[in-house]
Design brief:
binds flavin-adenine dinucleotide, 2 domains, ten-stranded mixed β-sheet, 9 helices, FAD/NAD(P)-binding domain, alpha/beta
Length: about 350
């Protein structure tokens, strides 16, 4: 294979995973993002990856056909491989399993039963009602039971990004902490090289550009005549601390519980993460946050006696008029791997592989 000069624009989980994959294959890769060296401890993230909860919901997904299902399944098979590689850089990185999804009504439970029969081979089981009884009072209200997915779970997104950053350094991927201002081609021919103008007016020349810059992708593409419209969808999350007399070690908890569209992730003793809302635009809504905190009215008793340790939000990019994510070669040498509105963490390995295959052929 001929190795290429490639620039990846955007260093969220999608850009980082893509850069990692391409450089592993031997390409000469540079990754560019003004957020590359930015401190992660804030309450607002333009970069959705830093705001994410890191849940990997690959097997609990209603449809069993279509691109989204195929990407999920491909990612689920690539994750263990990626974890083995990243483990060399951080021995504490891991995917915690299982994930439990609670049914909100009888109809949903029936659908879950069907899914279980179809996907027993993928590790889906119905929640045992007897076991359920023993933990009543601790989980969110659970009248109907639900599904256990043995292989779905959660990875800590900050650890993942840190680990990918270390591995990019080891693979000698160049990192440039600035904004890309514009893209253009040196001539109109098929073999024309791509030029990238950085904020400091420096110009880079590359064989391929992979755009992984979420909402920032729109203006870069617009300037060269490609309209890929996206809207912002905000997501809020909270880290709660239970007050002392409500000790909770989460002993009977799985890695993730999802109930009524809200995810709960138990951490160490008395600590829990809850998220994420889906709100149009870029301004967080107070009412969405309070619904999140009360788990849409289904909260267990302990949630009334908590304090907020940290709350934050991030902005996702959702494509308009086409399904997410945008995986496309839009001109020779110009590839899109972006607009991962939801599940970008889950889908990152499969989408990075897709990009690598475009460059191979
Ligand atoms: C609160 C919350 C919880 C979530 N939970 C989950 C979850 O549990 N599981 C899951 O799979 N997904 C989850 N998601 C969704 C997931 O976070 C996204 O799908 C994923 O992070 C998208 O990654 P990305 O790399 O495409 O975008 P981003 O992480 O947004 O990265 C895009 C990057 O592009 C850079 N950029 C933009 N313009 C330019 C430019 N001109 N030049 C250079 N760089 C540029 C930005 O600085 C940014 O760093 C959640 C999202 C939120 C907000």
């Amino acid at each position: 294979m001929e190795f290429k000069e490639i620039a990846v624009v955007g260093a969220g989980i999608i850009g980082m995973t893509t850069a990692y994959r391409l450089s592993q294959l031997g390409h000469n890769v540079v990754i560019i993002d003004p957020e590359l060296n930015q401190h992660q401890n804030c309450d607002r993230y333009e970069n959705a990856s830093k705001a994410s909860l890191g849940i990997l919901m690959g097997n609990i997904f209603r449809r069993s056909t279509g691109r989204s299902w195929r990407l999920r399944q491909r990612s689920m098979s690539l994750w263990p491989e990626l974890m083995k590689e990243l483990y060399d850089f951080d021995k504490s990185i891991r995917i915690d399993t299982p994930l439990i999804q609670l049914a909100s009504d009888k109809k949903e439970l029936e659908l879950m039963k069907e899914l279980c029969q179809e996907r027993a081979g993928l590790g889906l089981k119905l929640l045992d009602p007897a076991r359920d009884q023993t933990i009543e009072g601790s989980w969110p209200k659970n009248e109907y039971g639900g599904l256990i997915s043995k292989n779905d779970g959660r990875i800590n997104p900050h650890k993942l990004l840190k680990c990918l950053r270390i591995s990019l350094d080891k693979l000698k991927v160049k990192t440039i902490s600035t904004k890309v201002i514009s893209l253009f081609r040196s001539s109109q021919g098929k073999q024309a090289e791509w030029k990238i103008m950085l904020e400091n007016r420096e110009i880079l020349t590359k064989d391929f550009i992979v755009i992984c810059s979420a909402l920032g992708s729109q203006s870069l593409l617009h300037k060269i005549g490609h309209e890929q419209q996206m809207e912002a969808v905000l997501g809020q999350a909270i880290h709660l601390t239970l007050n002392d007399d409500d000790q909770n070690n989460w002993e009977d908890w799985p890695a993730v519980i999802t109930s009524n569209g809200i995810n709960l992730i138990p951490l160490e003793k008395n600590q829990i993460l809850i998220g994420a809302t889906l709100e149009p635009g870029i301004k967080p809504s107070r009412s969405a946050l309070s619904k999140l905190k009360s788990l849409n009215g289904l909260s267990p008793k302990w949630i009334k006696n908590v304090s907020i340790k940290k709350q934050w939000y991030g902005i996702r990019a959702r494509p308009l008029g086409q399904p997410a994510p945008l995986l496309k070669t839009i001109e020779p040498g110009l590839i899109l791997n972006t607009a991962h509105y939801r599940n970008g963490i889950l889908l990152a390995p499969a989408c990075a592989e897709w990009v690598a295959n475009q460059i191979k052929t």
